[in-house]
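Exercise 4. Each item below gives a protein and its sequence. For each, produce the structure-token representation.

Item: Glycosyltransferase family 9 protein (Streptomyces cinerochromogenes).
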Amino acid sequence: MTTERSQSPPCVLVLRALGLGDLLAGVPALRGIRRAFPGHRVVLAQPPSLAELALATGAVDAVFPAEAPDRAVPDLAHWPGPPPDVAIDLHGNGPDSRDALAALHPRRLLAHACPDGPPWQATANERDRWCAFLHGYGIPADPLDLRLPPPATPSPAPGAVVVHPGAASGSRRWPGERFAAVVRCLRAAGHRVVLTGGPGEDALVHSVAERGGRPGGDVLTGGLPFGQLSALVAGASLVLSGDTGLAHLAVAHGTRTVTLFGPVSPRLWGPPPSPEHVALWKPGPPGDPHGRTPDACLLRIRTGEVTAACLMLLRNPRGGHRQPRPEVATHVH
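Answer:
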């Protein structure tokens, strides 16, 4: 674990061994758990690469390393014991994640797949789904309780527009040449634009930078350390990205966002309704969020409407008066 293990107080073990966006979408539920068990030590089973973020939420006392390649259920057999007092499955709705926790013999197990588990809400937003799950067990949780504290370090590019063209899967990756066209327009309007990418996305980021007229120093590749990435996003004037973890991080820091959705509706994974956030989506049949090629709905989003959404948000001073955002601004046709 990331901190020393103590024999007391009793432990609550929470399983959510998924990615950056999954962790951030689970923060309201984690905070509900933290408040419901004030005398317990809350341990989150998740990838160790996200430990700094998990601890920054204030909802977690320690991280138990648990990897889940391809979103599988991790092996928890290396849990150092003793059995958790309470085990909570925020990983999924099937029996596999429930069984992985049950094998640790907790005194109490909370899971969708348990006989007393609340029904799975397939059409709910991810934040709402897990808060409703806890409510089913008598644990209050607020789906809007998702903000992160300000980063301890300053932004490497304060006030910049952060453009993140990558995504974990090809189906959620808007074409690079379209991102480049938006970057050119934003720079022509006088905005500083910083491009970011995760591990393995260097070629994509450099391609967008070259087509978008990059000035020196405004390309951050290779996957920034979390502290630097968090500071960059928190200090940005706007984050433009696909449906990926960076969009969730921006929302958690109160940074304005334009997010492009394709295979999955923003009703399921989008930000809370707010004039600070524009989620662009063309309704259509649900796609594969882990597919290899860009989703057909995503490709229907035009460069002009993305540029217009960015400039609309950037023209409005933070906290200034804005017209209420109509429903069609969230689900653009």
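Check: Residues 168 and 245 are 9 Å apart (CA to CA).
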